[in-house]
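Letters spell out the chain; backbone shape is given numerically. Both lines appear below:
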Amino acid sequence: MAKMRLYYSPSSPYARKVRVLALETGLDKKIDMVNVALTPVAPNADVDKHNPIGKIPALSIKNMDLFDSPVICEYLDHQHKGRKLFPRKGRDRWVSLRQQAMGDGLLDAALLARYEGFLRPEERRWPDWTKGQMKKVDGVLDQLEAEAKALKGKPTIGTITIACALGYLDFRFGSHDWRNKRPKLAKWFTAFGKLPSMKATVPPPA
C-alpha cells in the first residue's frame, strides 16, 4: 500500500474520527500526519491543493485526494484485513451509519454555534442562531440517551463519531453540562474514552 498523507488539526473532531479509526485498524503506521492551521476565514494553501472545499480532514493518496470524514473513514476501512468498522450488511450496517449521521449532525450544529460565538464579530452575532444550533445538539443528545444501549459493543464508525462529537462538546462547550440529564450516555462515553485510540487523540487544552 502506498503511503498516505492526512491533513488534520488536533482540535478538529472530524479529523479525530479519521485518526481514531486509523489507530483502531493499525493504519496509522501507513499515514503521514500533517498538522495544519486553518479556520473558515483563514484558509490553508496546502489543504486547498487537496480539497477544493478547503476543509480538513483531507487524505492524499497516490492518484487521488479524498475529503469529508465519512468518505475518508470508509476508504480506510477497505484498506485493512481486520474487523471492519463499517459493518458490511444487515441491520448492523444501518444502525452504524445512522449513528454516524447523528454524531456528524451534532458536530455540524456545535461548530456553527462555535463559529457564531467565536469567529463572528461581537456586534454581528445572532443569539437566536446559537440557541437554534444548541437545540439541535440537545435533540441529538436526548436521542442518544434513549438509545444508549445500542452504543455498547466493539467500536464502529457510528460509535467513534458519537464519541468524537461528545469529546468536542467537552472541548469547546464545557459549560453546557450535557451529562446532567443523560447519565447512560455519560457512562458509555466514560468507558469508550478509555480506548487507547481515544486517549491518543484528545484535543489539546483550549
Notes: The mean pLDDT is 94. The chain has two domains: 4-77, 90-199. The beta strands are 4-8, 31-35, 58-61, 64-67.
